[in-house]
Design goal:
Elements lengths: L4 H7 L13 E5 L2 E7 L6 E5 L3 E4 L3 H10 L3 E3 L2 H8 L20 H21 L5 H82 L14 E2 L7 E2 L11 H8 L3 H16 L17
Antiparallel strand pairs: 1-2, 1-5, 2-3, 3-4, 6-7
Helix pairs in contact: 4-5
Length: 293
């Protein structure tokens, strides 16, 4: 079918198969009125989405529309097209409710979500719904976005599942030797090397102290005997100063850090969990909010 023959067939309530290529006529794509016609000058199709998106055949934008957008185009009359272009709203039911499920490719789902997102932004900019019809429309759109989000997340999970399983198998294969090496390395450092190096450091510090008592000058840092272990030519092991805290007064520590963002975040999580269980902990109160879900 070419030109307006497909469009006129739909106008006669016929049910021809949806062509793969865009056809001339007046259509509804998501919340956008679409006009398609053939320019008599260059014989190329023109696609007008609302008033601000003109797509010309043989361009990348046209290929994108033909492969994704055209499948979502639904027949509308010329009168309905003119009315919407003049500013009148669509029918109450959201147009995408009856669309076939999108292709499971990233490009198709991303295009669908982008269309829904654009419509959501338009409604959000208008503010709170003022009529039941506006609220119904927003509710339909919210559900469609939720379905699209779920579909995308499920496909993402499915696509990465083999890679995750492969990673788990690789981790499991190498876990035994890696853990064995790590444990033995740490035990050598803690039980064998550290005590000896600590003894050497005490002896060096004592020798330097005795030298000072005899009036000798304090050695330059570069002249100090290093406290290390390891054969020549190999990476040596040295003592490293590590500081850690022992909490002796939890209340005092909390009072000193009560405004720290991490402390407030942890307390908020605890309070929210208690509120959901309808438990009012000391220092908090439960509020009930009505949210659209």
């Amino acid at each position: 079918m070419t030109d307006f023959s497909y469009y006129f067939a739909l106008a006669r309530d016929e049910t021809p198969d949806h062509p793969d290529a865009p056809q001339c006529g007046r259509w509804r794509m998501s919340d956008d009125p679409v006009a398609i016609w053939r320019d008599p000058v260059d014989d190329k199709l023109r696609v007008l989405v609302r008033r601000n998106r003109l797509i010309v055949e043989d361009t990348d934008a046209f290929v994108s529309f033909a492969t994704v957008g055209w499948a979502h185009c639904k027949y509308i009359t010329q009168d309905k097209y003119d009315a919407v272009m003049a500013g009148e709203p669509w029918d109450n039911q959201h147009p995408m409710t009856n669309l076939p499920p999108p292709d499971d490719s990233l490009e198709a789902i991303a295009e669908r979500i982008a269309d829904l997102e654009r419509e959501a932004k338009a409604l959000i900019e208008k503010g709170a719904a003022k009529t039941k019809e506006e609220a119904d429309r927003a509710s339909d759109l919210k559900n469609l976005l939720g379905d699209a989000e779920k579909a995308a997340d499920e496909l993402r999970t499915e696509e990465k599942a083999p890679a995750l399983q492969q990673c788990r198998e690789i981790d499991a294969k190498w876990a035994t030797p890696i853990n064995a090496a790590r444990n033995a390395k740490n035990l050598l450092a803690a039980k064998v090397i550290a005590p000896f190096l600590q003894m050497l450091k005490r002896e060096r510090d004592e020798a330097e102290f005795q030298a000072l008592t005899r009036g000798e000058k304090d050695p330059h840092p570069a002249e100090r005997v290093p406290v290390t272990a390891g054969s020549p030519g190999r990476r040596s092991v040295a003592l490293r100063t590590v500081k850690r805290a022992i909490i002796e007064d939890q209340d005092a520590l909390y009072n000193a850090n009560r405004e720290h963002p991490k402390v407030r975040a942890v307390l908020q999580d605890i309070a929210d969990a208690a509120a959901r269980a309808n438990i009012a902990l000391p220092g908090m109160r439960i509020i009930v909010e009505e949210r659209a879900a």
